[in-house]
Design brief:
homodimer; alpha+beta; Arc Repressor Mutant, subunit A; Beta-Lactamase; Enolase-like, domain 1; 3 domains; five-stranded antiparallel sheet; three-stranded antiparallel sheet; 12 helices; elongated; DNA-binding
Chain lengths: ~350, ~350
Amino acid sequence: MELSERKKKILQCVVDDYIETAVPVSSKSLTERHLPNISSATVRNELSALEELGYLTQLHTSSGRVPSAEAYKLYVSDLMIKDKLSEKEIDYIKKIFLEKADNLEEVIKNTTKVISELTSYTSVGVATPDVDEKINIIKFFRYKIDTALVLIVTERRLLKDNYISVPEGMTDEQLSEAESVLSRLLSGKSFEEVCNIKDDINDEFSGYKNIFLNVVEALKVYMTVKESDVVMEGQDKILDNPEYADISKIKNFLSVVTKKDKVMTLLAGDGRDIKINVKIGTDGYEEIPKDCSLVTATYSANGTKIGTYGVIGPIRMDYQKVVAVLENVGKILESILTNR
Amino acid sequence: MELSERKKKILQCVVDDYIETAVPVSSKSLTERHLPNISSATVRNELSALEELGYLTQLHTSSGRVPSAEAYKLYVSDLMIKDKLSEKEIDYIKKIFLEKADNLEEVIKNTTKVISELTSYTSVGVATPDVDEKINIIKFFRYKIDTALVLIVTERRLLKDNYISVPEGMTDEQLSEAESVLSRLLSGKSFEEVCNIKDDINDEFSGYKNIFLNVVEALKVYMTVKESDVVMEGQDKILDNPEYADISKIKNFLSVVTKKDKVMTLLAGDGRDIKINVKIGTDGYEEIPKDCSLVTATYSANGTKIGTYGVIGPIRMDYQKVVAVLENVGKILESILTNR
DNA sequence: GTTAGCACTCAAAACGATTGACTGCTAATT
DNA sequence: AATTAGCAGTCAATCGTTTTGAGTGCTAAC
């Protein structure tokens, strides 16, 4: 059922005020601050109707009203007036990204830093591995008798965090032979394609099957989300919100937001094509603390998803600001990464 | 001035009890729990003498006594009965370290994890770069027209996080020539020695001076403590302590302990040869939150310092446990790293 | 040097009364 | 039929008072 325009307007004002003040909002304050042309009694009637519909709740009979999870969702999707960032804020984002854009990890870290600074909430993010990333060069560097470092150059970056074990008795010549065979076989292929290569594809390569399998293992590690792909910033920001005056709430919040594995599950499985995503803890998401809201944006460059970043904070969150920041950061980040 | 045996005993009991209960300790509870042979009035006299000496304080006339920073220092150095870890706990430490000991970064991360788990406090640590580390092999891998990855194999590890920019027009042959010249020049030398090499040391090398200077820059980065050398665990553990019921205290604590740069200054400049080090916030250490105590241990292997690890928590901290854990972790860690 | 005993102190808990910001409802008004 | 004024009723929050009891310090006796 569609709400009347007036109900929408009133609901929007309630959410606005509650986000601003953290205090249950009363009919009187609504008429005084936003609706000078109707009486508080009328507003009371509307409020009680909105309560009936599940958008508002009351702590007790004589208290003001507080928005429900339903109301916040409607607010973000329909009611909220979109915020614009100031020149200064946009310049700040640009500055941060441009001063250190060489290293992808730095960029990721900076993304959460900027988001947390500008929103004043805890920010979380995860860089999504790109299974379509294509291999250009593959190189082995033996540095111990039985271990070699695998260097993989792709279109976008240099992967250098995996090791393979070298079979006993393999000479340096054989290893560099393996290198050139594999290079020829794999270059131009995406990670996913490499992982799907069937055994019996190529005669000349058959001698290096073990090495090949090791490399596939290494690629698989790159293709999965790992704790090292997760970043978090500003965990202490939650304490600035008056509803977090309760130690047990803080503890609950921190026990999620200081642990990379938990943040990883928090951000896992976010829809691919949805840009801004709002999840509210009371709404049945197991991983999100009950009194929290998680707002995320999924960023892409050159048509592939590069990561999910967002903000976790009280349900009563400044969604206008958060959405504006996430969108602007996304725009700038995507433009930087697309230009490569 | 030396305390009488009885004063020492009483002070020890006060600290023990206060650490256990977090409640100011009274003369009555002391006689009941620990000193059945003297009357509470006698204890009261002794307590008031200890207060005179600066070891105890009272919140108000009719409250029990609380240890001062002075008292804790004496407690740790003199009064405390050293704790032993249980078999189970020692096995736990061994298990953690043995299951993933291949990668130095993992080991470092595990060190703080174990310390935090076993003590139930926030743990912090920093891996100290070793300026005496000796270079075995140096290798360049050009992966962009103007950039090469520098791989440096030392006695202990493979460094692979630095890039040098390659002069325009330099061919692959010239780069590999530079590689072998530098390899000959640098292998067997320590980082520090390399940084002190004077310009005019070698004719054959003079053509690659720029590359050499780039490599020195890279080594200097390895030789300084960086944020990536800092690890932290269990930042939420502080909330289990009843004296942290106050949001502003929590905020203060978290604002230090969620930021790598701050933890870095916290751990900076710890004496080289001191094993266990106790610093109490009220004692004039700028970086430590006023109501906190920082207990650190400095670990070495093969005669060189490998890092400083410890625990940060309330002044009223279980020093017996903490010291025991730090010592045991140290023993096991040092034995693992020395065996390399 | 110890100790029993008592007066005194003071934070914390318990209690009760008051306040005031709300709502819901009813009856009058538009 | 929708709006509104007016009033009774609700309830958390605040404030002041009292009570309680754990604790000390001091004195006089042992």
